[in-house]
Design goal:
Helix 2 runs parallel beside helix 9. 71% of the residues lie in helices and 5% in strands. It is mainly α and 333 residues long. The chain starts with 8 loop residues before the first helix and ends in a 6-residue tail after the last strand. The chain has a domain of 155 residues.
């Protein structure tokens, strides 16, 4: 038995370091991507040749698995002790990681500069890109968690980490499939945004050849395509609660769980509408390049993670069966 929700020292450090790891990725991306988008440096643009996978989708899946893994196994994670960090070593590792991100952008630019779209050269560049991602991920992990902690963590969760990695690949591909069902949700988002903005701005509507709604507010035009539909966040949210139910069905108040899960799913859709609302405001009053670039790419998953964490921590005390005034343990040994 555990108290309703007590965050012990080692688990708290784990959560803080996971948050730091994500922030580090976000800031590193912004460091390179913002000037590229601001000054429209076309040589570094993303194309089919240099886009091996959706990095934002992969980051969302990674965050989802990290949150699920962390909260489900929090008692075991709390037993894994942290080392005293070496600031100098961490800074050097981060700098090394940034170097490999720079190499990734050089390789990405090479496909455009030399017009490489097939053949051995493309395979070599794509292999180099994957290697840069892998090395950067490792260096950032070492900078945040330390080598000894990572080794202890792997020893404690070897089987669970392998299963999570397989689940991550499946989820990434499943999300790509569900993204094809975006149009229905995009139309709903567009209708809500029109009703919100029409009282204060001149709003015009159109559709693309693919049927996506297009909104024009003053001189700022945006298409409500697949990334704006909210279907990715809804998929991740549903996957989390489905996994929670599969693992903890005997410990749950099923009616409460179902009702609060549905309510939370509606909230996920509302958060996506809020993201688009803020994006349009940024495009009208700040900068169209900023709105459709860095803000559009990152605001969605940041808002989703904040909403998800807050919502789960609130409803957790209501969805689990209590015994003698405490919530039954939901982490397995």
């Amino acid at each position: 038995m555990i108290k309703q929700f007590k965050i012990d020292t080692n688990f708290k450090k784990f959560l803080l370091k996971v948050a730091l790891f994500v922030i580090l990725i976000f800031l590193s991306r912004a460091l390179f991507q913002f000037p590229i988008e601001l000054f429209k440096i076309q040589i570094f643009r993303q194309t089919i040749a240099n886009r091996l996978f959706s990095k934002i989708d992969a980051l969302q899946v990674l965050l989802f698995l990290g949150l699920f893994f962390g909260f489900y196994y929090r008692e075991r994670i709390n037993r894994v002790k942290h080392d005293k960090p070496s600031l100098k070593s961490s800074i050097l590792l981060v700098i090394a990681g940034e170097v490999f991100i720079a190499i990734y952008y050089v390789l990405r630019g090479a496909t455009n500069y030399f017009n490489i779209s097939s053949g051995v050269n493309l395979w070599l560049i794509q292999g180099g890109i994957l290697l840069c991602f892998g090395i950067t991920f490792l260096l950032f992990s070492l900078a945040v968690f330390s080598k000894d902690y990572i080794l202890r963590f792997i020893k404690e969760f070897k089987k669970e980490l392998i299963i999570s990695a397989i689940a991550g690949v499946i989820m990434y591909n499943a999300m790509a499939f569900f993204q094809k069902q975006w149009l229905f949700f995009s139309k709903g988002v567009a209708a809500i945004l029109v009703s919100l903005f029409s009282n204060f701005y001149h709003v015009a509507q159109a559709v693309t050849d693919a049927g996506a709604p297009v909104l024009s507010i003053n001189d700022f035009v945006v298409s409500i395509g697949p990334p704006c539909s909210g279907i990715e966040s809804m998929f991740l949210y549903t996957a989390f609660f489905a996994g929670l139910f599969a693992l903890d069905s005997k410990r749950l108040h099923k009616a409460r769980f179902l009702g609060l899960s549905i309510l939370g799913l509606i909230g996920v859709y509302a958060i996506n509408v809020l993201r688009l609302f803020l994006l349009l405001l940024a495009g009208v009053h700040v900068s169209p390049a900023f709105a459709v670039g860095l803000f559009h790419t990152n605001a969605g998953w940041v808002l989703f993670v904040l909403y998800f964490l807050a919502y789960y921590l609130i409803i957790r005390k209501f969805i689990y069966i209590k015994s003698n005034g405490s919530v039954k343990n939901v982490s397995k040994k």
